[in-house]
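Re: the 162-residue chain
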Amino acid sequence: MLTDRAVSYLKPLIYNESAERRASLIPFGGIYWEDEIPDFHAFMEIPEYDRAGIIKLFYIRFKIWNEEELSNDEQKFWEDAKKRVSEYALFQRLELTKEDRQIQEETERGAEELFNAFTDGAEDVKISEKDGVVSFSITHDLTKEDHAGITRRPWWKRVFRL
């Protein structure tokens, strides 16, 4: 269930037909519109538990876009959130245009490539799920050389193509 703080954050975010579409590799791994998260930096500053509930709404909407079946918990969470913040812009975009779908798929691929770049050569990767939100922790030994004494390009150079 969304916390009261999360509800307070979402209540003023109402649908704007002319809102600009945006893409987020982390934390969403997909597209969203500026009326759904108007200030991404401010969004990242809200408490983690509240932010996780909001991210879960995006995850559920991705499943709806892909016509995937929702679990009972996901359905209950979605319906409860929709009752509490029915005017929230996210609930007004449950179908994608052809262009939106293409950009969503490209963004999902980009997020997967980014995750693979982060985990490539990692000493430890931990993936956890809580309340429908997946988190990960990746540990790299930056002093270690790859096999045969060859040091690979750092992940951040591969990700940003530097």
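The two ends are 42 Å apart (CA to CA).
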